[in-house]
Amino acid sequence: MPRKKSNLNNASTREARRKRIKRAHQLAEQIESRNLAQRISTAEGHAQESQEQCNERLQENIIRTRAAGERDIATVGAQEQ
To answer: Please, are residues 16 and 10 in contact by the beta-carbon 8 Å criterion?
Structure first.
């Protein structure tokens, strides 16, 4: 039997709950607009970083992605037992 989920990950804070409700009631155009604004902001930030900063960011992303994959594999293995 899997363990019950804990609320220690702060997924149920007031702010997170408020944002989830707000986003659930948004129209497709509003979501598209928000996503576009975020992509532009991210692109501007990446354009201003040096090559060394870019390499560091990409390396951190690789490490984070690998760790998430390993956690997922461990979770699936634990659930199968």
So the answer is: yes
